[in-house]
Amino acid sequence: MKTFPKISPLAVLAMLFLFGAPENARAQSRAAEPCLLDRCGDRQERGANRSEPRASANVAPGQFDFYVFALSWSAGFCALEGAQKGRDQCAPGAANGFVVHGLWPQNERGFPSNCDSGARNPPRAAMDLARDIYPEEGLARHQWRKHGTCSGRSPSEYFADAARARDKIVIPEEFKSPGKARILDPMDVQRAFMAANRGLRPGMMAVTCQRGLLQEVRVCLSKDLREFQSCPEVARQACRAREISAPPAL
After folding, report:
1. What would be the CATH architecture of the domain defined by 66-246?
2. 94: buried, middle or exposed (CB in 10 Å: 19+, 13-18, 0-12)?
3. Among residues of the chain, what percentage have pLDDT more than 90?
4. Are 95 and 250 in contact (CB under 8 A)?
5. Is there a contact between 204 and 220 (Cβ–Cβ < 8 Å)?
6. What confidence score (pLDDT) does residue 161 get?
7. What confidence score (pLDDT) does residue 56 get?
8. Residues of the chain with pLDDT under 50
9. Helix axis angle, 155-168 relative to 137-146, nearest 10°?
10. Helix/strand/coil (H, E, C) string of the chain?
11. Contact predicate 243/189, CB 8 Å
12. Of residues 246, 243, 238, the one with CA closest to residue 217
């Protein structure tokens, strides 16, 4: 009678893991992918799997590692989606260059979102302050609900911090008068910002793009907003295209 070698239970489990469930292992790996910045919401807008993890709301306000300050290239936003949505910042004659998108509490991995701060709707006094910072009131309200509630600050304090971040970042001269379309290397945009902002280095920011258009410049700042902050995970989200277009202001 022909005999077969005995196989230990551990060996059987190893073979099942290696050969029996590769799709399940890949699915688990995808599920573990952290949400970065505002991209979790973008995944759902693109019809991504709703079972993917999203930014966590189950954290105490103020529990985060650093801030990401996002400046949106307004004409790029308008070309991608803003004009179709009838946004005021995209009205003819607005002539916006870089505008404040938001100030986002961020962790080394992932970010908190929609925290239970007890103040979901900013009072009028806070919105009066926000009006001078954001291109639209609706954007300011959204930023408070999604990000500001996790800052550990009151609405007025949070919007004041956004103003401080805006005043800290120097916009390079070549981006202050966006009168004509330009073809750019994303690295040239990064170099221009680093040259204009002392202490800003690679690994502390990301230039993002979408559908070949300049989208945003995202700069990492310490929690007290005094120093630029190393943020490898954020920096890895930078645009990888060789060339992008910066549409002119309307």
Report:
1. Alpha-Beta Complex (3.90)
2. middle
3. 61
4. yes
5. yes
6. 98
7. 58
8. 1-5, 7, 9-54
9. 110
10. CCCCCCCCHHHHHHHHHHHHCHHHHHHHHHHCCCCCCCHHHHHHHCCCCCCCCCCECCCCCCCCCEEEEEEEEHHHHHHHHHCCCCCHHHCCCCCCCEEEEEEEEECCCCCECCCCCCCCCCCHHHHHHHCCCCCCHHHHHHHHHHCHHHCCCCHHHHHHHHHHHHHHCCCCHHHCCCCCCEEECHHHHHHHHHHHCCCCCCCCEEEEEECCEEEEEEEEECCCCCCECCCHHHHCCCCCCCCEEECCCC
11. no
12. 238
- In one-letter notation, the amino acid at residue 120 is R
What digits encode the pLDDT tens for the residues 18-48? 334 333 444 333 333 333 444 443 333 333 3
